[in-house]
Amino acid sequence: MNIKQEILDILISASEDLNTEKLSVVFSNRPELCDYQSNFAMLISKELGEKPIEIAEKIIKNIQKNQKKAQKFQFSAVLPGFINIKICDNALSEFCNDLIHDENLGIEKVAKPRKVFFDYGGANVAKELHVGHLRSPIVGEALKRLHYIMGDVVYSDMHLGDFGLQMGLTVLQLKIDGYLDKFFEKNADVSKISLDNVTLDTLNDEYPKASKRKDIDEDFKKQADEYTLFIQQKIEPYYTIYKKIRDLSVEEIIKNYNLLNCGFDFCYGESDASPFIDKTVQIFLDKKLAHESDGALVVDVAREGEHIPIPKKSEDEPQRYKNPMPPAILKKYNGGDLYATTDIATIMMRNKDFSPDEIIYVTDNRQSLHFEQVFRCSKLAGISPEKQKLTHVPFGTMNGKDGRPFKTRSGGVVRLKEVVGMLIQSAEKKLSDNGIVGDKELARRIGVGAMKFGDLSNSVAKDYCFDIDKFLAFDGKTGPYIQYTIARINSILSKVDFKYGDVIIEENEERDIVINILKLNSAYQISYDNYSLNSLCLATFDLASAFSTLYNNHKIITEKNIKKRDSLLGLCVIVKKCLEKALWTLGIDSVDKM
Ligand code: ARG
């Protein structure tokens, strides 16, 4: 039963020969008066030359004339011309009793499911995961799950940063520090040599060391560039060493992301696109889209009118434009591939393997220019078909309480593992206040859930403040509050062996719960349209707090009227299911005790 659609259908048929293109209904902003409202009469009054209230009254008269069946809705016209709609209790009860058996809990799926490919997580091999790597998996995972709930077919790929300069830097530094001697011995059989003297800790020391040195030592940087090229061209022993470092790193990355409930269908990396790079570059050359500039191969992506045209040197030369949109670089001065090259080649690879309708990239907002360039290049070259949507979802920075990017006390980078550790520790403390000790997994679920909810309840594009105490509060707009509500319902239901009866809505507090379920269900669509989970978080919280009001005012288990008790229990089941589904979508675990 789609309540909103039923209301719309009634209004449309009562509008008779009016043009109903502009007819819509929204949730009422005066909930004490009605549940939905429509400003249709106001929108069309000018073109009809009639007063809005008269149009509204006419529509309502028509509804009353046509209404034969038992009434589900009450319509009224109010000045200056609103149509107010109140859902009758019997319709709300029917909605609940249907919902309990509906797998998607009344959430409307998209009319046309699409294949959507998610690119998020984006960790870099050899570099340790730090706080800066939190938002992409958190937001990406939730968006992916949201699309799944809405009926799309989803794929996810971590798109590891595994082919860039950091690889050359790391191998070079390891070599200088003597870790790789065996690989460089004469006639060494590289496939037989193991890298067991190198651990994650070694990498965590070596890469930062190399990264610092490249900024002050020109020769070192040049050599690292060369090593990077060797790796990209699969030259031994560099390539084998690189592969081993990659494996070591990826294992650790997956473990860390699993702690955050983030799972990927694929852990492809930039390097997996390498078989497509030559073909990619060739297309740009064949279509005369790329040209040489200072030894590099570049593509002008600025659009006509957007920028100043550069005078053509010959007739068949494509028109080029000056900055501010800088050209995308496909090949470096030394023939090395760049971030943009692998991203364009990756689109070619994904289209060959999956031909998705949309590819969604979740990275921080500093990469906006990069993606704009990559998207423009891919469209220009026809590597991404015209109808394919390429979307960058840029997110803001996670700041500390001082409003600056979150750092350690001494100003250093906070490792991702440390953040998760902090969250678990704080959750353990909170749990022990409630008499629960020694349950680390429960503490992880609560701690990580707290952070994820804290993150996702902000609009994705904005910076937000990481505040463990606020995130972990058991009351307020927090993850733990939602988890707590579910745990509370679980405890009620377990006392009656999870039995319940038909739901009969008759009190305001019950109505309020159902209206909040309707709002939650529409928040899925809003979040889907906005590529941001904040509406879903807010609506989830509103439902949980509507339930708390009911809970505080009713003794559910000891209710004497059995019909009433069983109905309340049915409502409990519905709220639990709706909250669990919303948390699942956000990538947050439910818990059964707290
Ligand atoms: N590895 C990149 C980084 O750390 C993120 C990858 C995002 N995805 C992509 N297809 N470029 O910035």
Explain what you see:
This protein has four domains: 3-87, Gyrase A, domain 2; 117-161 and 268-399, HUPs (Rossmann fold), CATH 3.40.50.620; 165-259, no CATH class; 416-586, Isoleucyl-tRNA Synthetase, Domain 1, CATH 1.10.730.10. Helices cover 49% and strands 10% of the residues. The protein has 19 helices and 15 strands. The chain has helices at residues 3-14, 40-48, 52-66, 89-99, 135-149, 165-176, 200-216, 218-232, 238-259, 274-286, 339-353, 368-380, 416-433, 440-456, 468-471, 479-495, 508-530, 534-553, 562-586, and strands spanning 26-27, 36-38, 73-78, 82-87, 115-119, 153-157, 290-293, 296-299, 309-310, 320-321, 328-331, 358-364, 389-395, 398-399, 464-465. The strands form five sheets. It has a four-stranded antiparallel sheet with strand order 1-2-4-3. Strand 3 (73-78) and strand 4 form a beta hairpin. The longest helix has 25 residues, at 562-586. It binds arginine. Arginine (ARG) binds at residues 119, 122, 124, 159, 161, 343, 361, 363. The site of arginine (ARG) has 8 residues, from strand 12.
Assigned CATH superfamily of the largest domain? HUPs
Based on Cα principal axes, name the global outline.
Answer: globular
The CATH architecture of the largest domain can be named as 3-Layer(aba) Sandwich
Which fold name corresponds to the CATH topology of the largest domain?
A: Rossmann fold
Assembly state (oligomeric): single chain
Strand content is: 5-15%
Q: Evaluate the radius of gyration.
A: 29 Å
